[in-house]
Design brief:
Largest sheet: 9 strands, antiparallel
Order of helices and strands: EEEEEEEHEEEEEEEEEEEEEEE
Helix content: under 10%
Radius of gyration: 24 Å
Number of strands: 22
Length: 279
């Protein structure tokens, strides 16, 4: 049985050469729209195409955190029959930093909780989601979880035909119109600042008008804005200090560069934030 100098014959090609101890979490892609509620449902099917109830007493939750920050959130799921679902208000979604990491935890009756899926959080203005079909551990018979649409709600009022995404929040301080803002730790809007490293990964929008502390303020997160007093040259618009908008590429003492919009005319911009670049 000796071969070479090892003293042992090589393993047959069909025998695995990796030993795994413990559970290995699957891949999760959590996509959030900071201007919208996170409303998502996954259905347990066994096998694929045949819905079955989750085991009685099953619980699950999304755990979201961001390295280098104090941000931490748990979003518990509602489980009813074969459906595991979430409905998280937009105000809570908007607090999630762009650099966050998400884990989907599951606990069956009489078992310890475990991480089922994990992966990065992505932010945009497209509908959010949790990824594609995945295997469900701990349930025999080829069980899978499948994203499914929610029930059809009542028809809303006719829209204006515009494509802008505007959210309404509370001003944490006095805010001028057409200034860049972020949500503070209390959920209220405050001026965004490119000298503050904590703002690098936060969703940033632009106020549509002025607001006093404690009053409602509307913030454009995506889409076209027009202000007659503007005088932009066509091209990118960046975040400056204390909420200012500028067409000069920021340098020190700025902590990061964030393009918030692009000027399409002297008095019109299209808000569509690009990922920040740390300096």
């Amino acid at each position: 049985m000796r071969e070479g100098t090892s003293g042992f014959a090589p393993l047959p090609p069909t025998v695995p050469t990796m030993l795994t101890l413990g559970s290995v979490a699957g891949r999760l892609r959590l996509v959030l729209d900071p201007a919208s509620d996170f409303v998502r449902r996954v259905e347990l099917q066994q096998p694929a195409g045949a819905p079955v109830p989750w085991p009685s007493g099953t619980s699950a939750w999304l755990r979201i955190s961001a390295n280098g920050t104090t941000f931490y959130a748990n979003w518990p799921a509602t489980i009813s029959g074969s459906i595991m679902s979430w409905h998280v208000p937009a105000a809570d979604v908007a607090k999630v930093p762009l650099t966050s990491w998400a884990e989907l935890w599951v606990q069956y009756p009489d078992t310890s909780a475990f991480v089922w899926l994990r992966g990065p959080v992505e932010s945009g203005c497209e509908p959010g989601g949790v990824g594609g079909i995945v295997a469900v551990p701990g349930i025999s018979g080829g069980a899978v979880a499948v994203p499914v649409p929610g029930p059809v709600g009542p028809a809303g009022p006719p829209g204006s035909g515009g494509s802008a995404v505007v959210v309404t929040g509370i001003a944490g301080v006095a805010l001028s119109g057409h200034r860049a803002v972020v949500r503070g730790s209390d959920g209220r809007f405050v001026p965004a600042d490119n000298t503050n490293p904590k703002h690098l990964g936060l969703p940033i929008g632009i106020t549509t008008g002025a607001a006093t502390p404690g009053s409602d303020v509307q913030v454009c997160m995506f889409g076209e804005m027009t202000e007659p007093s503007w005088s932009w040259a066509p091209g990118p618009i960046f975040l400056g200090a204390t909420g200012a908008l500028t067409q000069s590429v920021p340098t020190g003492p700025a902590a990061f560069v964030a393009q918030l919009a692009a000027a399409t005319a002297s008095s019109t911009v299209f808000v569509d934030r690009s990922p920040s670049i740390a300096l």
